[in-house]
Amino acid sequence: MPVAELDEAELSLWGERFGRALPLPAFVVLRGDLGAGKTTLVRAIARAQGTLEPVSSPTYGIVREYVSPRGAVVHIDLYRLNSVDELHQIGWEDILRARGLVLIEWPERAEDALPPEHITLHLEHVPGRPDVRRLTW
Fold this sequence. Notes:
With about 140 residues, this protein is α/β, with parallel strands linked by helices. It has a domain at about 30-90 and about 100-110: P-loop containing nucleotide triphosphate hydrolases (Rossmann fold, 3-Layer(aba) Sandwich), CATH 3.40.50. The chain has helices at about 10-20, 40-50, 90-95, and strands at about 5, 25-30, 65, 75, 100-105, 120-125, 130-135. A seven-stranded mixed sheet has the order 1-7-6-2-5-4-3. Helix 1 packs across helix 2 (about 40-50). The longest helix has 14 residues, at about 10-20.
């Protein structure tokens, strides 16, 4: 697995390159603790897709959909889900059929329901370096 240690600007640049190269449809899960940079990476990937509005954290709405020239970009934050049984309440079956890009934060809440062909990005804090994150993919 490739690994990189990146500050926020570098993480954004990496996300933009990844987003431009990503063939669609794609299902990308982002793992990491609170504050690890998942939403920063989602914003960069969505920006590379050409989303027409800025990406915000969907923690309270859980699912946000954005329009891009390449198709829909669906951003999901499962942090507030208590169990995989709640996935049907957010339209999980429709999300799985999406033909664009689906980006999921806190995928642990849907572990057994994730499609097998998903791409995993993992972010973590680097001890002693608060401005740097370790990205594994």
